[in-house]
User: Which sequence fits this backbone?
């Protein structure tokens, strides 16, 4: 049976690695994680996509990116080889995916709150830590422009539901 063709049209995508059943950990150590982030930063600049969010887990990673026509497969070929992707449709979908990605380390028992996970862009996106230079959470924050107050605080409330 033929594989379904990947969606390569412009849009916003949730990207994740395929199941990494052959190895218990995708990253050997923090140096590996830093190298991954360096490459992600380079891809963001050279391929011209917008990295909205990332979260590196022990055996996989998640990205939320906005990419132009044909950019997704060429950007992912640089290092990230086998991956899954799903088009994000609308603000509610974007916020739901972001909450899922941010809470992944909490659900895995690696930390108590998403802001504690060092290998995620979450804390920077909600103003609790410096934001990585290649991450642009503006699309997330615009979902809260209509609210009075701080959009980053509103995003944090949405993600960290009690």
Assistant:
């Amino acid at each position: 049976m033929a594989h379904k063709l990947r969606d390569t049209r412009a849009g916003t995508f949730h990207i994740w690695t395929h199941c990494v059943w052959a190895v218990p950990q995708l990253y050997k150590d923090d140096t590996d994680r830093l190298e991954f982030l360096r490459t992600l930063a380079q891809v963001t600049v050279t391929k011209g996509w917008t990295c909205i969010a990332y979260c590196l887990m022990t055996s996989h990673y998640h990205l939320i990116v906005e990419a132009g026509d044909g950019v997704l497969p060429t950007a992912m070929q640089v290092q990230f080889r086998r991956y899954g992707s799903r088009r994000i449709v609308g603000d509610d979908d974007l916020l739901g995916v972001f909450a899922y990605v941010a809470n992944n380390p909490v659900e895995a028992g690696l930390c108590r709150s998403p802001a504690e996970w060092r290998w995620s862009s979450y804390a920077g996106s909600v103003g609790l830590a410096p934001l990585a230079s290649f991450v642009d959470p503006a699309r997330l924050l615009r979902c809260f422009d209509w609210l009075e107050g701080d959009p980053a605080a509103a995003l944090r409330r949405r993600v960290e539901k009690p």
User: Anything to note?
Assistant: The chain has one domain: 11-159. Residues 20 and 95 are 26 Å apart (CA to CA). The first strand starts at residue 11 and ends at 17. Residues 11-159 form a domain with the Alpha-Beta Plaits fold (CATH 3.30.70.1290).
